[in-house]
Amino acid sequence: QVQLLESGGGSAQAGGSLSLSCAASGDIFSITVMGWYRQIPGKERELVAVLVTGGSATYGDSVKGRFTITGREFEDTKNLQMNNLKPEDTAVYFCYARSGGLGVDYWGQGTQVTVSS
After folding, report:
1. What span, in angstroms and rounded, lies between the C-alpha atoms of 107 and 97?
2. Is 114 within 8 Å of 10 (Cβ atoms)?
3. What are the residues facing 25 on neighbouring strands?
4. CA dihedral defined by 9, 47, 71, 29, rounded to 10 degrees?
C-alpha cells in the first residue's frame, strides 16, 4: 500500500509560479512511476508530469517547457515547479503513483491550483 499527500498549490496570476509537493509513505520502494495529473471539472484527468524509476520524466504537451518535476529515485517526495502559469492551468492537481508488481495505481486527494488572468 502507498499513501500520497500533496501540499502546495493555491492561487497565482498568469505568468507567475507555484510549486507542488507530494510525499509518499508506505511501500515506497515498490513505486515505479510517480508524478502529477490534473483535472478540470467535466473533463478527463490528464497527464502533467511523471518520473519513471530508472528513467526520465514525461510531460504533458501543454506544460512542456514550463513545468519541471524533480525527485530522486526511491525518495518519498516529488516536487512540481510550475512557471509561466496560464489560466488554462487552473485545475485540481492529483499526485499519482504506480506500484510495481501488480501495477496498482494510487492517487492523492488533490490540491486546487487557480490561475487568474
Report:
1. 7
2. yes
3. 3
4. 120
Q: How far is CA 50 from CA 11, 13, 14, 19, 106, in A?
A: 23, 25, 24, 15, 13
The residue assigned the cell 490528464 is 46
**pLDDT 10s digit of each residue in the chain, 117 long?**
899 999 999 999 999 999 999 999 998 889 999 999 999 989 999 999 999 887 789 999 999 999 999 987 667 889 999 999 999 999 999 999 999 877 899 999 999 999 999
Q: Which pLDDT value is given to residue 57?
A: 93
The rounded distance, in Å, linking the Cα atoms of 67 and 86 is: 11
